[in-house]
Amino acid sequence: MNVEATTVVNGAVGKGGLDNGGGRNRPHTPIYLDYQATTPTDPRVVEAMLPYFTEKFGNPHSRNHAFGWEAEEAVEKAREQVAAIIGADPREIVFTSGATESNNLAIKGVMRFHKDRKNHMITLVTEHKCVLDSARHLEMEGVEVTYLPVQQNGLVDMAVLAAAITPKTALVSIMAANNEIGVIQPLAEIGKLCRSRGAYFHTDAAQAVGKIPLDVEAMHIDLMSISGHKIYGPKGMGALYVRRKPRVRLEALIHGGGQERGMRSGTLPTPLVVGLGEACAIAMKEMPAEAERLKVLRERLYDGITRRLPEVFLNGDHEHRLPGNLNLSFAYVEGEGLMMGIKELSVSSGSACTSASLEPSYVLRALGVEEELAHTSIRFGLGRFTTEEEIDYAVEQVVSAVSRLRELSPLWEMAQEGIDIKSIKWAEH
Amino acid sequence: MNQPVYMDYNATAPVFPAAAAAMGEALTIAGNPSSVHGFGRAAHKAMEDARERLAAAIEADARGIVFTSGATEANNLAIHGAGRPRILVSAIEHDSVRGVSPTAELVPVHRSGEVDLAALERMLGADRRPALVSLMLANNETGVVQPVADAIEIAQRYGALVHCDAVQALGRMLLNVAALGADLVSLSAHKIGGPAGVGALYVKDTVALKPVLAGGGQERGRRAGTENLPGILGFAAAAEIAVAQQPAEAARLGALRDDLEARIGAARPDATLFGIESPRLANTSCVALPGVASERQVIALDLAGVAVSAGAACSSGKVRASAVLGAMGVPAALAASAIRVSLGWQSKAEDIDRFMAAWTGILSPLLAA
Predict the structure, then answer these.
(1) Nearest CA to CA, how far is B271 from chain A (Å)?
(2) Which of A341, A390, A385, A425 is nearest to A28 (CA)?
(3) What angle do CA A229, A234, A238 make, to 5 degrees?
(4) Is A423 helix (H, G, I), strand (E, B) or coil?
(5) Per-residue model confidence (pLDDT) at position A4
(6) Which residue in chain B has the smallest CA separation from A6?
């Protein structure tokens, strides 16, 4: 199989290849700018995975023959690669089917194990759906859950968090970086606080691993969820970091053969495990330069749009933010029209899971963004294969679509004339 | 040394080239099936197409297919998700069925390796709380095919749901989910030449399933988490191949297996074959060599380049007598000298020769030791 060839099939995620037949500097369209939803698997990762589908196909749990040992060795190497990127011990890595499972295992697993003594957990209203949904399931089992608000910039208020922790608090689950607005929570501060108050600290780091430096020791993190497909690794693969010293105890979610030291049963998918390991190794090596490159591109996108368009609002803190995330709201346009106007850009108006629903993002609402502006928010997700040409093209697309829509908008016209729209009393029908 | 010979297909199987190709292409698709833009819609369409193809291969309603991370998760989801207060499982179920509900009532099996249907009926009649019965279609260690259709008929009379772990049956015997009538059916990709890390649970439309993994509402709310698209495409491709080739493969592998067992019997008249009076998967042979521990046989075979197993591949590598053989009333000492040989799509006649040469070769020094 020609790995190189398959990557170029999806021309838009090619390595900045310019359209040969098209106009000057016009990149392939549609342009993929949704790297927080998922990422293409890096060709180097695919290459590492392929032999484990066919010639090295053993079951890593077969302890009595060479086929099994070969697979087990590959699994353990990957475990070291995953551990290394977050400063953990390989024995603290539990492989799962993805970050959703990791989050379910961490939250339900810890609370079900501890709820007889400590029956309370804390999380944020802006967490990923699978964290919130796990918490809601626990509420039905009698666990008390506190959903903390966030500040206008999307960050947790440390004083509010400190006040919410009680002697009954077993777990604090706060994401490392938000999937919609990219804001990075103060992990080290949260970890220190939780440790001093005797609560475990779980962080959903699906969006953060490989994008920003993470260290479970320095940050006092007890459990961390990791995703494969958000870091150019395979879908269907994730991991949960579970601290050994002091040991975090949890109840398994999937029972059976007792793999992963009883915390997660099921045959380990060797090729996917190898892919996750390789993805971590690549990200670790390239993170400093790549983060810098993405930040420059992200600012180019932000400046390019805001220099030419007024009334554009950044959602979420500017400074404490993933390099590859930009989330903007455009006043005086209508959400669906905007999405149609920039349909050559594959962007998202929220998280992928909920993107089919017409509800405005609950994350933006939690920031206090008004409903109309929440409806016109766009998440731009930049990543490893995003190029400068693509960003420049995206700027053009956004500016022309928004300008066109505003020209058609009576509200925009009124705003230009200085009429305060909120003061208008609309006729009732 | 020659290429090692793999005879442990019930643990896992090499991936079919066509399934690997389907995955290789899908790996670089940049699309989350839940995204609404073109990349996401393409990913979604590919996934739904795979769901239809898998459903067609097993003659099931595609809307009933829930993709999971594998059969262990599927078994957990079925048993946990059915939410029945009473759970009955056969005494020879896989650990992933036994493990979900450690307090489940065990339905005994006959010496033949088949579940005791009279006992099942007695147990169902003794306690009228709503029950779930979990019975595998074919056993992973002996290959014995269970009378699932009969069990379903009994269970329905008592209002019980039936879950069927069909992991070893897919591609190895006829599997018609609609005709079988089970409420829940677990499937695995990596046992049939598909990738590890993907499986499925078929859920009949009358069953309201409680999810194990909460989150983004994928799989119609029955299983959250971004779907493993390449794995799903590889699974569908493998299922189509395995099911299409199944009748011919069963005949081919059955002949190889029968040859193996005949030669074992000729070489060692005291060797004991298990489950041979019952309908059995054509690819599986479970044989004991009295007086020679399973581990010693397996390790000696491995040194000679032949991979077999002493039972299920799972768990910690600790050696313990097979619970399956124990449930069949096989004495512990005999069970402790049993090995499992399981064949698959790359198996060929020379493999049997290699096995026999290695196995008979190790007998004398082992016995002398």
Answers:
(1) 21
(2) A390
(3) 65
(4) helix
(5) 38
(6) B25
Any idea which architecture A45-281 has in CATH?
3-Layer(aba) Sandwich (3.40)
For the cut 70, the answer to whether the pLDDT of residue A6 exceeds it is no
From the CA of A397, how many Å to the nearest CA of chain B?
16
More reliable by pLDDT, B33 or A110: A110
CATH superfamily of A3-41+287-423: Aspartate Aminotransferase, domain 1 (3.90.1150.10)
Sheet with A144-148, edge to edge strand ranges = A93-96, A238-242, A223-227, A200-204, A169-173, A120-124, A144-148
Whether B253 and B171 have beta carbons less than 8 Å apart is answered as no
The complex's ipTM works out to: 0.87
Q: What is the average pLDDT across A2-6?
A: 38
Cis peptide before A246 (omega within 30 of 0): yes
pLDDT tens per residue, range B228-278: 999 999 999 999 999 999 999 999 999 999 999 999 999 999 999 999 999
The CATH 3.40.640.10 portion of chain B extends over 17-242
Closest CA in chain B for residue A95? B197
User: Is A101–B225 a contact, with Cβ atoms under 8 angstroms apart?
Assistant: yes
Report the alpha-carbon distance of residue A226 to residue A95 in Å, rounded.
Answer: 9
Pick from A10, A38, A100: CB nearest B32: A38
The half-sphere exposure of B322 on its side-chain side, counting CA atoms within 13 A, is 34
CATH (one of 3.40.640.10, 3.40.1440.10, 1.10.150.120, 1.25.40.530) for B17-242: 3.40.640.10
Measured in whole angstroms, how far is the alpha carbon of residue A170 from the centre of its chain?
A: 25
In chain B, residues with a C-beta closer than 8 Å to the C-beta of A62 are: 8, 11-12, 307, 309, 313
Residues of chain A with CATH 3.90.1150.10: 3-41+287-423
User: What confidence tier does A11 reach under pLDDT thresholds 50, 70, 90?
Assistant: very low
pLDDT band at A334 (very low <50, low <70, confident <90, very high): confident
Where does CATH 3.90.1150.10 sit in chain B? 5-13+246-368
Side-by-side strand order, sheet with B338-342: B272-273, B284-288, B338-342
Assigned superfamily of B5-13+246-368: Aspartate Aminotransferase, domain 1 (3.90.1150.10)
At B275 the three-state DSSP class reads coil
A348 and B37 within 8 Å at the Cβ level: the answer is yes
Q: Which amino acid is at A267?
A: T
